[in-house]
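With this grant's support, we have settled on a layout for protein records. One resulting record is reproduced below.
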Amino acid sequence: MTNRRATLALTPARRAAGLLAGLALGAAVLAGCSSNGADTDCGLDACTIAFDRGVNASASILGVEAKLIGAQDDQVTVEVAGEQLSLSTGQQATEVGGFQVSLDSVTDQQVVLRVARNPNG
């Protein structure tokens, strides 16, 4: 009696199906954000949010809600994870609810905020 190892050769169709399944899973992980009056660009541990000025703008990112409350000159008031923050451009990131929040830029049209998971907790 001879024992033979069974080898399963992956056909091109099986490889393609596996690749598509992996891509779908990755997209589902990164698509855990939504917005109203804002554009989001998210990775695994950080998001950049471009809020439109003059509208009720908010975004749900990384499991928390971020809202633009108001903006004047280079100072903005935002709410992240239920806490209001006053930020200005060039200011060091502020910690709130396990996240580092910083203001990237302010224009007449947009407020760009960066929210990143705090690597220390």
Helices lie at 12-30. The longest helix spans residues 12-30.
